[in-house]
Amino acid sequence: MLTVKEILMNKISLDIECVDRVYLNGYVKHLQMPGGLITFIREQMGFPIPSPMVLPPFTQSFRKAVEEYARAQGLEIVDFAKARDEDKDDLARARLTKFTKKQGVVMIGKAQEKALGYKAQRQEQGKRVWFNYSRQSLFVTYYYFYILDPDFGLFFIKVCTYFPFDVKVCFNGHERAKQQLRNEGIGFEALSNGFLSCQNPERLQVICHQLDADKIQALFDRWVEQLPWPLSKEQRAAGYAHQLSIWQLEVSRTQVFQDPEQGWALVEALIRDNLDLGRPERVSLIFERKVTKATPSEFHTRVLREGIQPIIRIRYKHSALKQYLKDGRALRTEMVFNNTQDFGILRGLKNFARLVEMGCRFNNRLLEQEQISQDCFLSLQEMRKLLQSTLLEDGQRASALRFAEPRSMAVLEVLACHAYIPKNIGNRSLREAVAQRLAGVLDTYSSAQMTYDLRRLRLKGLIERIGTSHRYRLTQLGMRVVTFFTKLYHRLFAPGLAALLPDQAYPSDLALALNQVTEVLHSWTDQAFGTPLLSSI
User: For 424, which DSSP code?
Assistant: First the structure.
């Protein structure tokens, strides 16, 4: 069978990096705290007493404006009730097929959903009366505006009808790229969410890389001016405009196979290669099938070809790196940022480019590591350097890295996880993960032991220090070593020793065969050194 490297280098007809789904949160900075709401009521609404009675008319006025806008556009407001997000999108796409304009609102939906809104409590002291506001979970009305934009294609803006009027914006980078190709007259074939082929792949990649924060902000500003909005133009100019932050961001790399059968073979090989590297909590198979009472209680990690979508998923805090077969034709590798602060980056839209660059790096790192995992063999000389104590040129002694020793293997297994999502390595985070593998108790693995192991790994060339800090990252040699040692231990060494145990109730085929070899050798020994030979001497 072809290796991952051979397929990805020679059997790919289209290779495109593109932002996929983007989910943005819009918030009014000065309405996030109760004091800001009170100031708004006094200064923008003109009520010296910030009574909660003035808030419902404000909401009702916005709802009325939406209804009038819908009538003017000839649109019916669809009650989403408990419709799923997929159902809402399907309804919008169905309306889009009958939409004759080049741009505009395709559909308006309405739903009751939870939001963090303001509630007031009346306080009295003698003749003095005042109100305390607090943010609480409420069920309020949201309006969904599904919009056809000339640059971004179909997307939606979701607006809350109650203070502080939070907003959600959702678009797809692939849909934007398709719209740009249509505008430029470049032909393409589409996947369900991506590209199968393109007449000008180079131009397509340029279009995908051109998406930035300025274009996203311009999209939002353009439609805020055209849609009914809860806050007037004057109020927005006074500092009550919505600011955008990144709620969810998906960065994808799609590699289309020349032969779909090679795609299935590759994904199956990747799944097998990623299930037993000592990190079951990070890699899982997701089987998209309905479970009923008739479904067997036992499941096996087997890749089936009908009705099941296998997915490799590597989790990191709230975010995830996943890989799956797209429409049976392409390998989709996708970094999903569910919380940008997982990686020390704030949610502000200005950090969009930095996150996209990081997502592309993570995707490429996963593909690179998968190729290394199939080609991670070490030479005899490299093995000797690792397994023996060595003296470096500067006089430092690097102690031996003992294969199969529990502590060493625990460290290498944890580092195997860092080979996929290249997060910096530190004493504290690494120590907690190693302790869990050793005994589950942090006290069993001290900080001094972790420091010793990090120094040994650095002197052996498996990790390198970042600047002058006490943070490290895996080297190219380190990725090969942690992969090779972990695979060798879990796939050959541990199961092989278990199979050799002679006192098992049900001995393995290997144990039975070796017992036969032992009996034959004993027979030859008896014949060679038996009594007839001794008597003739």
Answer: P
Single-letter amino acid code for the residue at 155? F
Burial letters 196-207, b for 16+ CB under 10 A, else e? bebeebeebbeb
C-alpha span between 54 and 300 (Å, rounded): 60
Shared domain check, 408 and 432 = yes
Q: Judge whether 344 lies within some domain.
A: yes
Phi-psi region for residue 328, left (φ > 0), alpha (ψ -120 to 50) or beta? Answer: left
| 8-state DSSP, 348 | B
How far out from the chain centre does Cα 139 lie? 30
Tokens representing residue 133 in the block: 């506001």
**ω into 230 cis (within 30 of 0):** no
Contact 12, 258 (CB under 8 A): yes
What's phi and psi for 100, nearest 5 deg?
Answer: -100, -15
**Gyration radius of the chain's alpha carbons:** 31
C-alpha to C-alpha distances, 493 to 250, 335, 370, 497, nearest whole angstrom: 39, 34, 22, 6
CB-CB contact of 146 with 154 (8 Å): yes
Q: In a 3-state reduction of DSSP, which class is residue 61? A: helix
Token representation of residue 367: 């593909």
Whole-Å CA distances, 521 to 503, 515, 517: 20, 10, 6
pLDDT of residue 530: 61
Asked if residue 9 has pLDDT above 70, the reply is: no
Domain span at 476: 380-496
Question: Are 241 and 231 within 8 A, CB to CB?
Answer: yes
Backbone angles phi, psi at 134, to 5 degrees: -145, 155
User: For residue 494, what are the CA distances in angstroms to 286, 386, 500?
Assistant: 28, 20, 10
Q: Are 242 and 217 in contact (CB under 8 A)?
A: no
Q: Pairing state of beta strands 319-326 and 330-337?
A: antiparallel
What are the counts of helices (DSSP H) followed by strands (DSSP E) for the chain? 18, 17
Based on the structure, what is the number of domains in the chain?
2
Q: 66 in a domain, yes or no?
A: no
C-alpha–C-alpha distance, residues 356 and 88, integer Å: 27
Element (H, E) at 335: strand 330-337
The 10s digit of each residue's pLDDT in 359-372 is: 998 898 888 777 76
pLDDT tens per residue across span 419-444:
666 667 888 778 888 887 786 666 77
Place of tokens 């569910």: 338
- Which DSSP symbol is given to 423? P
204 domain-assigned: yes
Same domain for 431 and 463?
A: yes
d(CA 169, CA 178): 19
